[in-house]
Each structure stands twice: as C-alpha cells, then as structure tokens.
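Possible regression after last week's pipeline update?

I re-ran a chain I had predicted before the update to compare outputs. Posting the input and the new output here so someone can diff against the archived version. Not blocking, just want to make sure nothing changed silently.
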Amino acid sequence: MARFEVTLLGCGSATPTLRHMATSQVVDLRDKLYLIDCGEGSQLQMRRMHVRFNRLNHVFISHLHGDHCFGLPGMLSTLGMLGRSGELVIHGPQALEDFLRPILALFCKDMPYPVRLNLIDPRQHALVMEDRSLCVYSIPLKHRIPTCGYLFVEKPSAPHLLREMADFYRIPVKALAEIKQGADYVTPEGDVIPNSRLTRPAESPKRYAFCSDTAYAPGIIPWIEGVDCLYHEATFMEADLPRAKETFHSTARQAAEIALRAQVKQLVIGHYSARYEDLAPLLAEAQAVFPETIAGEEGMRLSLIEKKVLCDN
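New output (post-update):
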C-alpha cells in the first residue's frame, strides 16, 4: 500500500523557542515530498529527520508572516549547493512574489535549477496543483493578512486484480490493463465476466487538511468534511480567547469544534503560543470536545494509511 505520511517539522508560532520550531510540515505520498510552509530552521529539521531534499518538488506557503516563510531563502540556497537541477514550484499568495523576487535576484541568480512561483488567490477554494499522485486545493482562512490552508487529496488507485480469477479464466496479459481500468472480460466463447468478479476495490483515497493560521472559521467545514486527518492551529487556550480574537487565531477548543462539526477522523493541533510550556491543558481542552485529538510535536510522523502516529523526536 502506498505511503501517505505527514512529518511535523515545527509546531510553534510567532518566534522559534527552545520547545518549538516555527511552522513547517512535509507530506510524503508515494515517496514524493511536498513542503507546507517553511519557517526558520526548516532545513535543519529536515536534516535531523532524514528528509530527502531531492524528492521535494513543490512548496506550499500559507501566508507571508515570517514564522511561515523565513526558512525559504536558506533552503533555496542549500538546494542549489546540493546540485539540484529540476524545477521547484512554490505556491502561495500574491505577496510571495514581493518577498522572493529580490532574494532570487540577489542571492540565487546563479542557481543551477529554476524556481517557479505559482501565485494563488487565498480567498478562493480552488485547485492549486495536480500531479499523478494527488490534487492540492486552497482553503480560504481568516487571518490578519491573506491566508489559505491546503487540502491534499490522494488520487484513486486502480482496483486490485484477483490473480486466482485471472488464472481461472485464462485471461491473456494484454487484457489485464483494461480490466484494471474497469472493463469486463469477454471469453473466446463470448461469455462476459463482470469486472466485479475479477477485481476488488482499492482502498479509499486519503485526504489531509492543513489549516494554520486562522481565527475560528466554520465556513471551511464543507471543504474539509470527513478528512482522514486535520491539522488545525490551536494557538491559545479558551482562557485567552480575547487574545485569540485580537490576533485572528484559534483556541484549542475552537479547533476541536471545527473537527467535530466537520466529522474528521483525526485532529492534530499545533501552532502553540510561546506562553504555554505545557501542552497538556491545550490537549485536554480539545479532547473534551473532540476525543480523537493529538497534540502535534516536532518529529512526529502521522501515517494516514496505518492510522497511527510515529515519533522521531
């Protein structure tokens, strides 16, 4: 079964601390890597967690606050020094161009690989990127500046061919590809063998939603409904709700309410304020509303296929 994992590189907010790094994650689907946000220190975290830079072809930036993008210049330079030659595509709001163009012109003009910017409208829910493995959609969020989350949707796999049935009906090799695409098989005698007898359905495609940074925004629920895993910011506890509203962030309870209403399978909270040294109260607040909640931490790997959490830290 194909791998679908999410590695948490950083779960902090605003500034890096000794407890948490700035926001960054790596989605690994079928050994293709997709980076979400690139806070300060992201490339160091990738090295610590043995993430292979050469498999990274797309970067998705949620918004242009420093804790989500200050790691980009260093990573772009490192990729050049490592001899990268293939194109790197960076997706993000319009302000991404204002941030990166001077850096690319001044520090990265002689890089051996091209960088392409795909500027998106964070106010729209739309297809951002598509390849053979998945589709990525933007999720409009509610923050102080234009911000979007991202929904990663795995493409369906072909049904599994039942080898014993293929042998029983002596199906020639040249017909197998069409059967895997849904065709029935017609025997030399003219009998029609239905596809359902020859195959079994593949596993349902997995979906992962990343929502950080945002104030409480129930409007996102239709776009994330039923996802296998939701990462939602939980910067503050409910006791600090006035501060959450002021800064357009969410509390742990609000993140759990979104997860509950969207009927997601698992919630991962993160983007913690530096004021909290202990994550247990944040987790307890969320679990009181949505029990299937875990507190994200650096080094954590979330397996959507095996439905378990692995830790590298």
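Follow-up from reviewer: compared with the archived run. DSSP finds ten helices and 19 strands in the chain. Marking as no regression found.
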